[in-house]
Amino acid sequence: MKHEEILHRCFRCGYCKLPSNYTDINCPAYQAFRFETYSPGGRMWLLRAWLNNEISNSRRFSEIMFSCATCGNCVEQCAFPNFKDLLLEAFAAGKEAFLDAGQVPAPVRDYLTKVQLHGNPYGKPGKKRPEWAADLDIPVYSDQDHLFFVDDVGAFDTRGQEIARSVAKMLQQAGISFGIGSGEEVSDGNDVHEMGETPLFEELAGKNIEAFNQKGVQKIITLSPHSLHAIKNYYPALGGNYQTAHYTQILAFSLGSLKFQSNGNNQRITFHDPCYLGRRNWDYQSPRMLLKALPDVHVLEMDRNQKNAFCCGGGGGNFFTDLLSAEADSPGRVRVREAAQTGAEILAVACPLCAGMLEDAVKVESLEGRLQVREITEIMAEYL
Amino acid sequence: MTEVIKRLKAIVGDRFVSAEPEERYLYSMDQGTMPPAEPDMVVMPGSTEEVSEIMRLANEYQVPVVPMGGGLVLSGLTRALKGGMILDMKRMNRITEVNPKSRYAVVEGGTSQGMLQAYLKKHHPELKHSMPDAPPIATLAGNVCIHGSGHLSVLGGFHSDMLTGMEVVLPTGEIVRTGSCSVSADWFGKAPLPDLSGLFMGWSGTTGIVTRLGIKLFPNYRHNDLLIFVTEDPRDMPDVIARLTSTQVAEDMTPWMTPKPEWARGFMHINIAYGAHSKEELTFKRNLLQISVKDYIDNKSGGFLPMPPPQKGRFMQLPSPDLARFADVRKGGGFEYVGAIMAIEHFPEAYQAGVRIAEKHDVSYSMGARIVGAGHAMMFFYAYAFNRADPEDMARAQHALEETNSAALDMGGIPWKAELPAQQKIIEKMAPETFALMNRIRHTLDPNHIMNPGNWERA
């Protein structure tokens, strides 16, 4: 297994379970299940035991592995600088080994099967991919400055489509030159990659790279931070080299083109950092710049923010596989309770997956009257 | 066991009981050198009442119970030596009270050191508690129960000395309180009552399960500083420590001796942490400390290490991840240490024994001590790193640890949170009447002998 040489070097000191201020548990799977086995150190030791034939693979073991939300808190907090950067790669390698052994949770298998068959986990034909923009005046990419790449959730999920439309309108408002795909593209493959399904990821990335290159794409704006991560960090090794940015980054650079007016609401807003924009790609400021540019808005921070942000639980494919459950200790529910404690009335998000996870959590926690989950450009639009 | 598991699930919920191979494997061992001992199940209670129900069930079926906090003891005390269940307490992590005037906090048995630190920082920045050198996920209850020490131990003694009261589930399931909280709504201290807390501290989880405890808090100074005194001669250390502690201004004093980095080899360093409400007070305290060891500076046998602020900040980080990093010295994820509680005057022989044993067994070592009280005792530690993937390297560390335990006992010290072989050595040296009393107490509390069996028993 790739990176097996680091497994025994984990001391299980537990720094990986916490944020740097130790406020609370910050590993989503450990938060949800609380057994040591679900912590990053637990996974390291279990994988080593498996490779040493001390334990067998099993349904539970595979759930332990695939419940990792790949949020990167363990990498951020691990006390061992000599191998911490390899933790998530080691977990992906472990998952790959489980896939090879045919031992994966049913929801993971179903997710991967759908992506393999249809190019997306919704089982929809690719030609339907651009339908989210049907009522908008957005050209198919030809010679515009940017391709606006919309992930599976933005393309096929009802709420994701709303967010995609809102972002697209704001990009237009900011005068950004962009076009969208015409349906030949497929899933960005990020979560497939994090699940360790390397051949499928390479197939998906290859299709996208071919589609991008045929159109002459050079600059890409992504709706999802997950797409940003894959295209920016994984595609170059497969021949796909693009200037890639998340939409909040493009809008932050275009703030001068947007004129905001006070709407008299004096809103209190707290922002949930998406893991794949924040910890995985080190941008904590672009979304905050957008919020702070709005007149009379009070941006409140949760105890766990920026590099210490607590994941919504949707990463690593969990948005689709739901291995982290919806119990009271699930990451999404914990996170919305934390957001409500700030006194904010709006929980701002910058990722369609976070939006889905946290909106569900607000409902289960019966916080609808106190806390609204809004995507950033939806908030910005109220100030134009 | 099937019936026990079914009933446990009815008590704590399906999600918090596991008899699966993965949990049984991982909870069979800790990070130290003790061999694995597998539990039949792992249970995570969420309340004192659930713990009580679990204990009644365990008695009914005579199933061993091993309480576990952070699981970071390193000496294998949370292994299920006779099978049964491990009670992972970390779901019980609520901070139920902070009394800022009487300066104590009341926390549940699974509350982590880091969580209390963060809570105080946010809600009571004028207060702090004594942090052990363990990682922040270590629990307060676990550390108090092993007579741990920490960064306020010169000020307040062992962490067990900082205990103000306990709520404990007895092995038979009764819920009892010790200290003022047994009489009053306030958790201010153990006096003036018979100190029943001692029934649960130092017993390695063989007498009950701590579900709540009160812990002393201390002023959190606005200005903090660190001095490092250095000398080459270990024979000077008892006097240097006595002089420094006589000033009564340090919060923490931790001597350390390590062969790496090269500049530190052969020297005794003493980190002296102190704080003050104002810069003037800080300067005054610094002067007191410096004057106390002036004779050593004048005769050039000792001095204070000049330190740039970033390095000083690293030394003052609480807790410091550098300690966990020692586990990677052999690129092997392991270290264990003998921490022997002993009188200060044994410092020179303790140091020399450590060097001799480390060289004999060819182990990577680090030595140090934490001064407890105004020089009333010290916890002298010998840490040995090992490569977990190399059985021979692990065996070397284990042999070094065993020899160190013997050496500590020979010089009048007592191994702290002793692993099984060290417990045997302590029992051999203990007054027989004392051990007999321990057994009588234990039998009274735990008639079915289900609490962490295998510990504190004559082999």
Descriptive notes:
The complex is a heterodimer of chains A (about 375) and B (about 450). Chain A is α/β, with parallel strands linked by helices and about 375 residues long. In chain A, about 40% of the residues lie in helices and about 10% in strands. Chain A is built from 17 helices and 8 strands. Chain A has helices at about 30-35, 40-50, 60-65, 75, 85-100, 105-120, 150-155, 160-175, 190-195, 200-215, 225-235, 245-255, 285-290, 320, 330-340, 350-365, 375-380; strands at about 145-150, 180, 220, 245, 270, 300, 345-350, 370-375. In chain A, the strands form 2 sheets. In chain A, strands 2-1-3-4 form a 4-stranded parallel sheet. In chain A, strands 6-5-7-8 form a 4-stranded parallel sheet, sandwiched between helices. In chain A, strand 3 (about 220), helix 11 and strand 4 (about 245) form a beta-alpha-beta unit. In chain A, helix 2 crosses helix 5 (about 85-100), helix 12 packs across helix 13 (about 285-290) and helix 15 crosses helix 16 (about 350-365). Chain A starts with about 25 loop residues before the first helix and ends with a helix. Chain B is of the alpha+beta class and about 450 residues long. Chain B is built from 15 helices and 19 strands. Chain B has helices spanning about 1-10, 20-25, 50-60, 115-125, 140-145, 155, 235-245, 280-290, 295-300, 310-315, 320-325, 345-360, 390-410, 420-430, 430-445, and strands spanning about 15-20, 40-45, 65-70, 85-90, 95-100, 105-110, 125-130, 165-170, 175-180, 210-215, 220, 225-230, 250-255, 270-275, 300-305, 335-340, 365-370, 375-385, 415. In chain B, helix 1 (about 1-10) packs antiparallel against helix 3 (about 50-60), helix 12 runs antiparallel to helix 13 (about 390-410) and helix 13 (about 390-410) packs parallel to helix 14 (about 420-430). The mean pLDDT of chain B is about 95. The chains are: A alpha/beta (about 375), B alpha+beta (about 450). The interface between A and B is large, with 35 and 44 residues.
